[in-house]
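Morning, I've got a small favour to ask if you have a moment. I've been staring at a protein lately and its backbone has me curious. You're getting the sequence in one-letter code plus the fold written as tokens. I've dropped the whole record in just underneath, so have a look:
=====
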Amino acid sequence: MNKVAITGAGIFSSIGRNIKEFSESLKKGKTGIRFINYNSDDLDISVNMGALLPLFSFKDALEEYSFIGKNILPKAKKCSRAPLSIQVSVLSAMEAYTNALLHKNKADSERIALVVAGSNISPRYGYNLYKSFQKKPRYLSPAYPLHYMDTDHIGVLSEIFQIKGEGFTTGCASASGNAAIINGSRLIQLGIADVCLVVGPMADLSPMELQGFYNVGAMGGKNFADMPDKVCRPFDKDAEGFLYGQSGACIVLESVESAKKRKAKIIAKTTGGSIVLDGNSSSNPNKEGEIRAMLMALKNGGIYPEKVDYINAHGTSSPLGDKTEICAIKKVFGKNISKLWINSTKGLTGHPLYSAGVVEAVAVIIQMNQNFVHPNINLYNPIDENCRFAGFNAEPAEIGVALSNSFGFGGINTSVMFYG
């Protein structure tokens, strides 16, 4: 099978609109979680915290890529009226595409694939249109049937970048990002594609989804109600639930042979990973499923547990979820647990849901290349004193092999391996 390299990465998030800004935020332990306002005159929901994207001009952001060429930029500019999630996908993919030098040293368009993570990506788009639809249904935008479908990301991105290989979405709830990386890696390993853009789109939730997550008991915000930057606390005894975060990200997977042929810099490699099910439709985590996912990812990569230096944990700041994951990690890594760095990027970005695995892959790649682990900024009372959690500040670290976990509702467990 072909070896899989990573030749490009891009991000657009609440703590950084590009790789440089995101890297600086990781090092500083900057959180994007603030008070948010989803309420209106006739609506009062319980969620008032999250890591939302700051206001930005899509047109101005695109100008940063004016060098990319006449065949790409005009098509991207057509998205100026597209849903927010599409715009974020375009911008993160634009950065990854150019970082991988695909605009200069091109690959055969029929040998480029595209995998987009997630399902029900933009429910706020339809939610916002509903009031006007009730009043004047015949004036509904003819673009609605395209934009409400997740495959709109496939169509838009493939048109902009002229991708003509395989393309599909992976709907695995919060594990969607990892599932996309795993399936993209398989396309490269099996020789179906030479290059694959893996896009983690921003989950654009409406007030209904936010209130639903709150009602099911998954969201935090009751404690530290006056300090939103203190609410998200993965692996802390005072954790009470996740905080919603808006982030989009993209990585470019490529066969090592193709990367060398195109003279693209290899910034990391991956062996792919594993996806295993619990056989359980509820939202509760399952230790045995998480153990199987990690063990299978290690086995598939031919990597012994003692070779892993760092885990980017699922770590949502859910009391039961965090405890279950630490129990699973200790079972897999045994006596090596005290030598293994552990952090959770969600403590800074909030939980990006479908894009989480891709956002965290970008965080892993940055830390591997810059020799540090980012802090767990609110870890005051660790749930397990035997684990080597990153502290309040970034720590120097040499990361040769890393594992990234993502677990989703529906009993979906995933782990992905990265190495230098």
The chain has two domains: 4-270, 271-419. The mean pLDDT is 96.
